[in-house]
Design a protein that fits this description.
The protein has ten helices and twelve strands. The strands form two sheets. Strands 1, 2, 3, 4, 5, 6, 7, 10, 11 and 12 form a ten-stranded mixed sheet that branches. Helices cover about 40% and strands about 20% of the residues. The chain is of the alpha/beta class and about 290 residues long. The chain is globular and about 50 Å long.
């Protein structure tokens, strides 16, 4: 049995559309656990009324993604789950999403399988896990390496986010839960897949299992798209900042081989400090000179 674990907070319409998509899956051999971390917009009431089959765990509002997910994982482990899937409420799984996950998990029962993310507006693939090397500091989105006819089946990756990741229960029993103390929000899912890879579990992008996503719904994306000095600071230091220097440093110290650590930290800090400013610089001049075209 698959248990799908999803933390939510004050995104009632996202959550409703997400649960509708799960209710319409071609395969229904799964249970959904929603951890509502103190929503004030009626999310829990909506779930209880419209989706009574959903397992609803209500919390006080003092959690972030990692610990809220851990609460759902603990529930699944206590109720004889075979697989646990982490999936966000700002996704819309295609109707055969679970079916395609089950198909490939039967062929790779010990592997972690991640979904192919499709932009809900453009219909184009935008994320499928990462190819990564501590030695070379390479971090490359899988989809940038695939030809149009290669978006099918399984593709080996090194890191995969928690958005649409199917995990055999034995992985949790072997390596533990998400490290919510070190990474309450960003980087907890990266850390988990690094630890799984170090424990010799394979990780694949399952290009047959697709979820539609809203890229702008992420707090980290908002900070990058709305450039300002305040948002630059938040990008680097806030709990939702996708380039949070504290979490990045902890992630590297915890997972990187010592012989590559100093180089990796230097390159990573440089990318995080400079990437935002570089984007801002080019956006400014594109805007400035577009007025004269």
């Amino acid at each position: 049995m698959i248990f799908i674990v999803t933390p939510v907070y004050n995104r009632k319409e996202f959550t409703r559309n997400y649960l509708k998509a799960l209710a319409e899956q071609t395969v229904q051999d799964f249970k959904v656990i929603i951890i509502d971390d103190g929503s004030t917009d009626g999310t829990s009431d909506m779930i209880e009324k419209e989706f009574p089959e959903v397992i609803l765990l209500k919390e006080e509002g003092d959690l972030w993604w990692a610990e809220a997910t851990n609460i759902g994982v603990k529930y699944a482990l206590a109720h004889d789950a075979d697989y646990i899937m982490t999936l966000n409420d700002d996704t819309v799984p295609e109707r055969d999403y679970i079916e395609k996950m089950v198909y490939w998990s039967n062929k790779k029962p010990s592997a972690l399988l991640g979904a192919l993310a499709i932009d809900v507006t453009s219909g184009e693939p935008v994320a499928g896990g990462w190819l990564h090397s501590w030695k070379t500091t390479k971090l490359e989105n899988l989809i940038s390496t695939l030809k149009p006819n290669e978006f099918k089946g399984l593709h080996k990756v090194d890191v995969f986010p928690g958005r649409g990741l199917l995990i055999p229960v034995k992985v949790f029993k072997n390596i533990g839960l998400y490290d919510s103390k070190s990474f309450p929000q960003a980087a907890a899912d990266d850390d988990f897949t690094y630890r799984a890879a170090n424990a010799k579990y394979e990780i694949f992008a399952n290009c047959d299992a697709k979820i539609k996503i809203y890229p702008d719904a992420s707090g980290g994306v908002f900070l990058r798209k709305n450039k300002s000095f305040v948002n630059y600071y938040k990008h680097l230091f806030s709990i939702k900042g996708s380039a949070n220097l504290k979490y990045f440093t902890k992630l590297v110290i915890k997972n990187c081989p010592k012989r590559y650590m100093l180089k990796y930290l230097f390159v990573g800090w440089s990318r995080r400090l400079g990437g935002y400013l570089k984007e801002w610089f080019f956006e400014f001049f594109d805007y400035k000179y577009s007025k004269y075209k």
